[in-house]
Amino acid sequence: MIERELNPDAATGRLIVRPHRSATWRQNLWLLGAIAAVTLPLAIIWSILGLWLILPLALLHLGFVLAAFWVASHSLLAREVVTIEPERIVIEAGRRRPERRFELARAWAQVLLQDRGSRLARRRLIIRCRDLAIECGRFLNEEEREALWRELREVLERRPSPCAVESAATVDDHSGRV
């Protein structure tokens, strides 16, 4: 999923990239509760009838389902923020907060969509500047990755107006940050 926060000149702005979340953590817990509502009464009945081993296995099964839900929900918190400024590109990646940060010179940056060699392998979206190459959008599907590639290329091909560069420098000088 790509959120666009581009300025009217479309030469600067921010692109927020994150995976699709089909369900929230609360919805996952409701689904686990529904599974438990069916599984546990049956396991208790079979335990009363003498097949006591079914109850611990049912609890173990519910524990595995809970762990799978947690791992899936945690991986869906990933987010990449690509900020395009007049002079640089800042890429921040992480889950709840930025864990990795890269700064690239905008004038030297290239956006590439690389094949992996096999028809079954997915393509990689690479933002490269000199010796540094960063992969973006690895959790996107092929259509979204291609749309992000096109959008980044368009934005980087446009040069910001001189007023935008001047106002960005003013913001940088007065606030201490961009």
Describe the protein in words.
The longest helix has 24 residues, at 25-48. The protein has two domains: 2-18 and 78-175, PH-domain like; 25-75. With 178 residues, the protein is of the alpha+beta class. It has four helices and eight strands, in the order E-E-H-H-E-E-E-E-E-E-H-H. Residues 164-178 have low confidence and may be disordered.
Write a short abstract of this structure.
Helix content is 43%, strand content 27%.
Output the keywords.
178 residues, alpha+beta, PH-domain like, 2 domains, disordered C terminus
Could you give the topology of this structure?
Blueprint: E1 2-6, E2 13-17, H1 25-48, H2 54-75, E3 79-84, E4 88-94, E5 98-105, E6 109-114, E7 124-129, E8 132-136, H3 142-157, H4 162-175
Antiparallel strand pairs: 1-2, 2-3, 3-4, 4-5, 6-7, 7-8
Distinct helical segment count = 4
Query: Which range best describes the helical content: under 10%, 10-25%, 25-40%, 40-55%, 55-70% or over 70%?
Result: 40-55%
Strand content: 25-35%
The CATH topology of the largest domain is PH-domain like
The CA-CA distance between the termini, in Å, is 25 Å
Q: Secondary-structure element sequence? A: EEHHEEEEEEHH
Number of strands: 8
Question: Radius of gyration, Cα only, in angstroms?
Answer: 24 Å
Number of domains: 2
Oligomer: single chain
The overall pLDDT, averaged over residues, is: 83
- CATH architecture of the largest domain, by name, is Roll
**What profile does the largest beta sheet have?**
5 strands, antiparallel
- Globally, the shape reads elongated
Which strand order do you get reading across the main beta sheet? 1-2-3-4-5
Q: Provide the low-confidence segments as ranges.
A: 164-178
CATH class wording of the largest domain:
Mainly Beta
Class from secondary-structure proportions: alpha+beta
